[in-house]
Please model this.
Amino acid sequence: MIKDSVIKDPSLASKGRLKIDWAAQHSPVLNTIFKNQLADGALSGKKVAMCIHLEAKTAYLAQLMNEAGAEVTVAGSNPLSTQDDVCAALAEQGVRVFATHDPSDEEFEQYLEQTIETAPEIMVDDGAELVGRMIEKRPDLLDNVIGASEETTTGILKLKAMDAEDVLPFPVLAANDALCKHMFDNRYGTGHSSLSSLMYNTNLFISGKTVVVMGFGWVGRGLAKYAKGMGARTIVCEPDPVKLLEAYAEGYEIQNSLDAAEIGDIFVTGTGNLKVLNSEHFERMKTGAILANAGHYDHEIDVAWLEENAKAEREVRNNITEFEMPDGRNIHVIVKGRLVNLAGGDGHPVEIMDLTFAVQALAAHHLAKNSKDIPSGLQPIPAELDQLVASTKLDTLGVVPETRTEEQEAYQTSWR
Ligand code: NAI
Model:
């Protein structure tokens, strides 16, 4: 074990190892890409820092980077999604880990700063936590950086803002925007895992309930699909008129959120925005309403307002806080408004993260191999890497895509 790792309990390693091995068994794309690309020596000796939800699937990515020869340091991207047994297994394997489950704010910050202090050359980031801190707090280390890749929509928004201010001195590959990432992970992965976490944590029946989905982007589309699939009356609230119309065409009810607040049994946010469920909604909600968030940060539901204004607050079930409103109604919030699928469950299905982490692994490999040719700033993942992930997955399914005949190619590329 690397001596300077900070983890909760090294004796949990064997439990974490079992979890990682399970993820490994169900990650055929990542395993193929490791054999064919990752292990070619490009990552050998490279210092890689990762800020990710520290559970088994992400741990498997860190393990493969380590096996590809990189010197890997990891920190958690969310205080509640870190699993201590997984951290122990990674540390035992030789990955440097700065993460514990539910640390104080100061500890969480310290872990991220310790990760940056390793002077990484490549950063695999989630929410631009490492990149943002590196630029603001450790400009002295910027010269070491070859590049970074970004996992999620919220991080991409921050990176766009950094790019607009011209403060990104190295390339950051938008892994989130790869088709094999957001079309599957944000949509199906988040929808599937958030609904399953909701059911597990509440032990309630979804069928017949009114589920209000806030946001109809990639995450919202998945949340609505799985809520409806489980038999819920599903209402979508979204500011973009085209997306709202799309929700209507998909067969969902569409409403303004203040109207939906009065009839919803369960509310799930997936917007990447701030206070999308706030006091105006809480005042209208039925007693017993259940609130969960699938967006990146824990401020989509204004939990701070509930904490300040509720008459009483108590844990009524593992991961469920009940807020008693001044008028006697109760509002229930799952995992304090943090990502319901990751802080309240094991996150996305393994097969979905197999695609996402294949994208991330190829992004790190691409940075290591082509560092001099990639311009600084936010950059797309090369389309051929996306294609490689999709075709590798199809290979593992034993499916051969259609090939167009020469005649068809000619027909489709001619204007006559
Ligand atoms: P997106 O940009 O595709 O969709 C967000 C949608 O929310 C947009 O359509 C936007 O118009 C809408 N929105 C903004 N403000 C709103 C408001 N006040 N009320 C209702 N809707 C509003 O983004 P995407 O990819 O769907 O991601 C959403 C969030 O989920 C981000 O924070 C992202 O980082 C996070 N995410 C979480 C995952 C998880 O595992 N829980 C996985 C992937 C993404």
In short: The pocket of NAI is lined by residues 152-154, 182, 185-186, 190, 214-220, 237-240, 243, 270-273, 276, 294-296, 339, 341-342 (CB under 6 Å). The chain is about 45% helix and 15% strand. The first helix runs from residue 13 to 25.
